[in-house]
Amino acid sequence: MTNRPALPPEIARRRTFAIISHPDAGKTTLTEKFLLFGGAIQMAGQVRAKGEARRTRSDFMKMEQDRGISVSASAMSFEYREFRYNLVDTPGHSDFSEDTYRTLTAVDAAIMVIDGAKGVESQTRKLFEVCRLRDLPILTFCNKMDRESRDTFEIIDEIQENLAIDVAPASWPIGVGRDFIGAYDLIHDRLEIMDRADRNKVAQSVAISGLDDPKLETHVPAELLTKLREEVEMARELLPAFDRQSFLEGHMTPIWFGSAINSFGVKELMDGIGEYGPEPLVQKATERDVAPEEKKVTGFVFKVQANMDPKHRDRVAFVRLVSGHFLRGMKLTHVRTKKPMSVSNPVLFLAADRELADEAWGGDIMGIPNHGQLRIGDALTEGEVLHFTGIPSFAPELLQSVRATDPMKGKHLEKALMQFAEEGAAKVFKPAIGSGFIVGVVGALQFEVLASRIELEYGIPVRFEASQFTSARWVQGDKAAVEKLVNANKQHISYDHDGDVVFLTRLQWDIDRVARDYEGVTLSATKEMMQ
To answer: Please, are residues 376 and 388 in contact by the beta-carbon 8 Å criterion?
Structure first.
């Protein structure tokens, strides 16, 4: 694809990325500062701020605001310098990993946020693996440098060893903890000084010519300056210089040091995404590869969020536009149902506000309000049949049965559960024998979120109870073999919301038994969400 034509300017200036991190590393704070610098919000609300006025702007589900965690992945667009940024926020809590995996299918790069004191944590490692599977370019931001943090070389070593990726410092911190005064920009030979007094103020830059410039002495205390000069010299000898090609191929990550809460290092990171980050990438479909510069509009749904506005029972499908120039009111073909769909009220998200989108380009993320027609994995095109690949659905690790406390509300509960299943918030299985439903999730916190949402959004109090089953597998194979399995194992069989056959198991022995006794049948822990 090296001789591809140049991208239309509007597409070339788009940067679509996600932020990944372990809970509490400062991802939501960083998101806020991006929006602040991008002019989308006037005052960044701290995650644990008091009072309604200062609620975090990018978390709008009630539970997220109560707990200070991001549960649903929201998408935000904003302009900064000549670029148009599409930032897809990922759930910070490890119990929501599946939503995060899917989000990463819709972006072209990721920012990995690391806590300066804790280094690489478990959730970071998991998410990094997903980026690695997709060869996503990764930029690293080492946060909380204004608190006591570890030695800079130690942090870089840990990233290189744990994640097997080259690390090229883009900036170098000056002092740590209370002595942290700023960073030296290694790429542009600039000094960045932090302002502790005003947390929403952009750090000032001092243009200097290299580390020997006498101007440095007026801004940096002598002992910190000596240490800075020694460390930078060592870093330049021991660590690779930044190489954009290697970064775009996913082999190298540039690292910036800063403090998101003090707005420090954030601007440099944003400049880095603009200058070095990838333009919208070619996306793979079963039929062919789809390039962003193609004239016709194509896109796929990677997330569905139900009841974003509880007053209207609406559902918004988040669509990653892959190619073309979309205009409001366009008719697109919904590939799964083969029906035309007139997209008359698409929205773009600016922090927690939505705006009607008159147009969007390849690389953008837009929301399409609908009444349940659109599902995760659906493709929208101008008539061509395309199935975008690589949007996974994972077998749940925890299963519980669910009942409405009021037996008269059973029908309503079924409707609510189907909504959540299509949204991707949980797997819902209808057993072949008996009544009730079995709900499967990846992490225990999701049961709490579901129970509170079913009550808040549908007015149905529910009870989750332990299930006799411990795991679920999708049944694949030729029709006769599957029928034979289903007829002989009715007590294990259930159906997911797409009507696909699912085998519920109690023990690993059940899975081994099927493999042994039923030739031509495979039990799978993942299912492609192509529709």
So the answer is: no
Rounded distance between C-alpha atoms, residue 372 and residue 467, angstroms: 29
| 369: number of Cβ within 10 Å | 18
Strands (E), 135-275: 138-143, 166-169, 171-174, 182-185, 190-193, 204-207, 252-257
Structure token pair of residue 187: 């790429």
Angstrom distance (rounded) from CA 250 to CA 131: 9
Cα–Cα distance for residue pair 122/168, rounded to 1 Å: 22
pLDDT digits (tens, 9 = 90+) for 95-105: 455 677 778 88
Report whether 299 contacts 319 (CB < 8 A). yes
Tokens of 489: 């194992």
pLDDT band (50, 70, 90) for residue 331:
very high
Q: Measure the CA–CA gap between 96 and 487, rounded to whole angstroms.
A: 35
Q: Which amino acid is at 430?
A: K
Nearest to 343 by CA among 358, 323, 363, 355: 358
Distance CA 63, CA 69 (A): 8
Which residues sit opposite 391 in a β-bridge? none
Beta strands in 158-229, from DSSP E residues, in sequence order: 166-169, 171-174, 182-185, 190-193, 204-207
| 500 Cβ contact list (under 8 Å, min separation 6) | 474, 475, 527
Tell me what the mean pLDDT of segment 228-233 comes to. 88
Task: Give the list of residues 6+ apart from residue 134 with CB closer than 8 angstroms, or none.
Answer: 104, 105, 390
* Residues 257/173, Cβ–Cβ less than 8 Å: yes
Amino acid present at 365:
I
Distances (CA, A) of 333 to 79, 342, 361: 30, 9, 17
Query: Using CA atoms, how far apart are residues 134 and 443, in angstroms rounded to an integer?
Result: 23
pLDDT digits over 55-87, tens only?
Answer: 444 444 554 455 443 334 467 888 888 999 998
Phi, psi (degrees; rounded to nearest 5) at 60: -115, 5
> Cβ distance 531 to 379 under 8 Å?
yes
* Amino acid 354: pLDDT: 67
3-state secondary structure of 320: strand
DSSP, res 287: S
Amino acid at 531: Q
What span, in angstroms and rounded, lies between the C-alpha atoms of 498 and 349?
29
Would you call 219 helix, strand, or coil by DSSP? helix
**492-514 CB burial, b ≥16 within 10 A, e <16:** bbbebbeeebbbbbeeeebeeeb
Side-chain-side CA neighbours of 54 within 13 Å: the count stands at 10
DSSP string, 381-404: ESS----B---EEE--SEEEEEEE
User: What confidence tier does 38 reach under pLDDT thresholds 50, 70, 90?
Assistant: confident
Could you tell me if 362 and 321 are in contact, meaning their C-beta atoms sit under 8 angstroms apart?
yes
